[in-house]
Design a protein that fits this description.
Helicase, Ruva Protein, domain 3, two-stranded parallel ribbon, TIM Barrel, alpha/beta, single chain, globular, 336 residues
Length: 336
């Protein structure tokens, strides 16, 4: 029996977090060509927070959505073009219609882990247009296994052809992954996927645990390029899966080449697990906050680790970047 795992590569989407959403059209073209040659099934592109998210609050993209999508589409022949969509950032009329018209193949519609209701219209529209539709539950460490199953079942009802849970804060240990993926596999008829972050150094181990618990979809990025301490490192993930007897359809040597190209051509720095990342993971704070917390903490001479702790206590999630400055001001007042 062939053990097939579907790999989605968000190097050009989650990786945009790591460079303040400043990936250029040229960089997108270079990596798309390399990933396509390697046989990556899905290449996901865009602003770190997805379609329509470029803004002062969460960060302005170097390139607009149209340029990003058209560039990627032009340089992908075998690989499918994927996008990440959060209702609220992305509207159907303004954003989703245009993206599908450009030629996007795979659309992941995402919500906070307890707010799947907001994905109904977007998922429905994607299915109406005949594109692959997946549901994504972000910050999934903030909900119990039973709640995740309930929310995932809503997405399944809305038309999602698979459900991916994101460890957006890099907070999971393998035991957490086993509990939640197993519950989802048992509670759904559609395939289940896992998107790891590496704040606690567990991204590969957690991804392996996910497939051993029944997941059929995994995310990984070149050199782990992504928010916070980065994602599961794609080339390592492909090698480990190959050693375990799983089939991904990705050529190992060519994905190693693609990762070398990514390091040289699109990364200012390769992701590492820094002190701040560890505290962010322990506190359960969205990895995409890393650049904002670092900048504001340095500006006001506040320990970023204290900021992460307080953000974690307040259960702040993506889209609430404005709270970071409020937390910093409160810490300064308390210090005085």
């Amino acid at each position: 029996m062939i053990k097939q795992i579907l790999i989605s590569d968000p190097t050009l989407r989650d990786g945009n977090h790591a460079c303040a959403h400043q990936l250029s059209a040229q960089q997108i073209a270079i990596y798309c060509e390399a990933a396509d040659k390697a046989g990556v099934p899905i290449v996901e592109v865009g602003h770190g927070n997805g379609l329509g998210a470029s803004s002062l609050q969460v960060g302005l993209s170097k390139e607009d959505d149209k340029t990003i999508l058209e560039t990627a589409k032009k340089h992908l022949n075998k690989s499918k073009l994927g996008i990440h969509v959060i209702p609220g950032f992305a509207t159907i009329k303004r954003d989703l219609v245009k993206a599908i018209d450009i030629g996007v193949d795979v659309i992941r519609v995402a919500s906070h882990c307890t707010e799947a209701d907001i994905t109904q219209r977007h998922l429905g529209y994607v299915r109406e247009r005949g594109k692959e539709a997946y549901g994504v539950l972000m910050m999934s460490h903030m909900a119990s296994a039973s709640v995740l199953v309930e929310e995932a079942q809503k997405m399944e009802l809305y038309g999602a052809e698979g459900i991916i849970i994101m460890d957006s804060a890099g907070a999971y240990l393998p035991s957490d992954v086993q509990e939640k993926i197993s519950a989802l596999v048992n509670g759904l008829k559609v395939p289940v996927g896992f998107h790891a972050h590496n704040n606690l150094g567990m991204a590969i181990a957690n991804s392996v645990t996910a497939i051993e618990s029944g997941a059929k979809i995994l995310d990984g990025t070149a050199r782990g390029f992504g928010a916070g301490a980065g994602n599961a490192q794609l080339e390592v993930l492909v090698a480990v899966l190959e050693k375990m007897g799983y089939v991904t359809g990705i050529d190992l040597y060519k994905i190693l080449d693609a990762s070398d190209i990514a390091e040289k051509k699109i990364m200012s720095t390769v992701p590492t697990i820094k002190s701040d990342s560890i505290v962010s993971g322990l506190s359960g704070v969205f990895s995409g906050f890393a650049k904002h917390v670092s900048r504001i903490s340095n500006e006001y001479e506040v320990d970023p680790r204290d900021v992460y702790r307080e953000l974690g206590k307040r259960k702040i999630v993506g889209g609430q970047e404005d709270i970071i400055i409020e937390v910093v001001m409160d810490l300064i007042r308390n210090r005085k």
